[in-house]
Design brief:
The chain is α+β, with helices and mostly antiparallel strands and 119 residues long. It has one domain. The chain contains three helices and six strands; from the N terminus they run αβββαβββα. It binds zinc ion (ZN). Zinc ion binds next to loops.
Length: 119
């Protein structure tokens, strides 16, 4: 499973949220620290994307929406989100997770999208 797919899975299962966004303007990279203490560096990120704005109260959600927007769905995909299609975004793990993940929530954040995928 690719890095992006795993990050989105963790989000849809309501397990791992991003805590910090550190943007480097010259390199156009953003280092994102997640709740499990892992850090992922994303490349070629425009300074105008919504999740870089520290005054944005919904930046975590906007970050995951951004990942979904970079997804290249294959022809058979119903495009309901939370699928396994490739996400076309350059990124690398710069720090591995050092914290155990909590158990998945019994009521996932996006119930409707998830049930749509599995029917
Ligand atoms: Zn898809």
């Amino acid at each position: 499973m690719s890095l992006h797919i795993q990050i989105l899975r963790n989000y849809y299962e309501n397990r791992v949220m991003p805590l910090n966004f550190e943007y480097h303007e010259e390199a156009k990279t953003v280092d994102i620290e997640f709740a499990d203490r892992s850090v992922v560096r994303y490349y070629d990120i425009a300074p105008t994307v919504a999740f870089l704005d520290s005054r944005n109260p919904a930046r975590a959600r906007d970050f995951f929406n951004y990942l979904e927007s970079m997804r290249l769905h294959n022809l058979a995909c119903p495009i309901t989100g939370n699928c396994d299609c490739r996400i076309d975004l350059k990124a690398e793990v710069v720090l591995e997770a050092t914290r155990e993940l909590p158990e998945p929530e019994t009521r996932p954040l996006l119930v409707s999208q998830q049930s749509g995928v599995h029917t």
